[in-house]
Amino acid sequence: MSRYLGWMAALLILLLSVMLAMHWPGWWWVAAVAAAPSVLGLVDVLQRTSALRRNYPVLAHFRYGLESIGPEIRQYFVQSDLEDAPFSRQQRQLVYRRAKNVMDVVPFGTLRSTYANDYEWINHSLATTDIHDHDFRVAIGAGRAKPYSSSVFNISAMSFGALSANAIRALNEGARRGNFSHDTGEGSISPYHREKGGDLVWEIGSGYFGCRGDDGKFDAERFTANATLEQVRMIEIKLSQGAKPGHGGVLPAAKVSAEIAATRGVPMGLDCVSPSRHSAFSTPLELLQFVSRLRELSGGKPVGFKLAIGHPWEWFGIAKAMHESGLLPDFIVVDGAEGGTGAAPVEFVDHMGVPMNEALMLVHNTLVGLSLREQVKLGAAGKITSAFDIARTIAMGADWCNAGRGFMFSLGCIQSLSCHSDRCPTGIATQDPKRWRHLDVTDKATRVHLYHTNTLRALGELLSAAGLDDPSQLGPEHIVRRISPVEIRSLATLYRFVEPAALLNGNIPEHAVFQQFWAEARADTFQPPARIRALRQSKSR
């Protein structure tokens, strides 16, 4: 009977308070309060959808209440400063401090165990350098009609729709002040992207938002109208996204307002789902022809693509098409599986796609092996928040880094994990005007700018301490990792790196992925090699 204790207590208090109220009217207030759980318990017992509520009337709701605030309890009271789920308190606090331009130093020493496996550091130099300008730049599209000088740290793809109007305004104004770029995400160029005038990287996904015909396919005329805007500095074709590769984009129906529906050209009130594949091309060679076509339509602006690495033969097919056709993207952005998203199935978030480090090295090594690395610039994204994150990623082969959630923290994101619900408490990832109107654009734009500035200043200090002058000088030999309590290795010796032109000379690297899939990959198809197709037909492997 203890299961019914809460309900029985409420009924008893209700009965006693009614009896006492006959003599002392003030007890009616107690009766009214006791009536609520009494009625709730009756509903619990009579309903048939939840066995828990029938077995534990009234008490079950305490469990539901505690469960609903579980993430907040864990984040504020349980998690350690270094527990990154998905971002640690230390990572978030660093962004907050740099965005507010307050002291970002720490006292007493590191919280990390320097003798734990996977601990990493940059070796310093006794011959330090003096770096006076931390505005580090990368030239993208050199030799094109309209090349772009990009910062080494930029805002990753986040669409209007996933983010609110004021969040987009603040990000773009921060980018304008700091002279870095703001990726639109695949949700098209909204009026809020245009309002402040910051540099834009226009991302085009499989839904072709912003360059979409009435049939949902690519429309060259509409593309040209947007691509030739002065504010649009580069065009990025989204092949896949790290957090949900092969799934397409998903904007929950709750966020598809009339404004977003009009901007994207989709029905209001329904989930806005981008197809999982493009209709404008179907082979590696056709992809590169599409890249070339967009470059021509844009008037010579840099055009590239973003991808999360999946089946290695598909990437190898693209690389072979580049070599065989001579059609090159100006840049490639490698999106790691640890990347963020507003909404995606848990299986995709947790178990789909290659993490950034391995994906970046595969793309970098392939381009080096084909002697194309100097012609194609590489960006990378995947949980980047600090100057060390940038330095490490560039050392592994990137030319620049993008960050999405890092810049969301600079706006004031508290990692409430409610991006998909339209109830973001900070007004960032919501389309509810009652919430996003309280996000002050001027103040948050300042924070975005300061976070970028202070992070690059910290990067400059790291480079100076390492005896370097520019991030481009970083290589895997500069990053050291502990692999056991008694052994450390530089990333240059820990990982396999391909020699320049090795693939052209027929010297297939001693690496399992290259050994198994390079020879069979084809420039005219994304389909798996015959050997792989045969394996799919049988469990006898």
Q: What can you see in these coordinates?
A:
The chain is globular. Strands 4-13-12-11-10-7-6-5 form an eight-stranded parallel sheet. The protein has a three-stranded antiparallel sheet with strand order 1-14-15. The protein has a two-stranded antiparallel sheet with strand order 2-3. The chain is an alpha/beta fold. 40% of the residues lie in helices and 11% in strands.
Strand order of the largest sheet: 4-13-12-11-10-7-6-5
Give the terminus-to-terminus CA distance. Answer: 58 Å
Strand content: 5-15%
Strand runs, count: 15
Please state the average pLDDT score: 91
The dominant shape is: globular
Structural class: alpha/beta
Helix content: 25-40%
Low-confidence stretches: none
Largest sheet, described in full? 8 strands, parallel
Rg (CA only)? 27 Å
Work out the helix count.
Answer: 21
Summary, kept brief:
The chain has 541 residues and is an alpha/beta fold. The chain has helices at 5-21, 27-46, 51-55, 59-68, 70-78, 89-100, 165-178, 191-195, 220-227, 258-264, 284-297, 312-325, 346-351, 356-369, 387-395, 405-411, 433-436, 441-465, 491-494, 512-517, 530-535, and strands at 120-122, 137-140, 148-151, 153-155, 182-183, 200-204, 232-238, 250-251, 272-273, 303-307, 331-335, 377-381, 400-403, 479-484, 487-490.
Q: Tags for this entry?
A:
alpha/beta; three-stranded antiparallel beta sheet; 15 strands
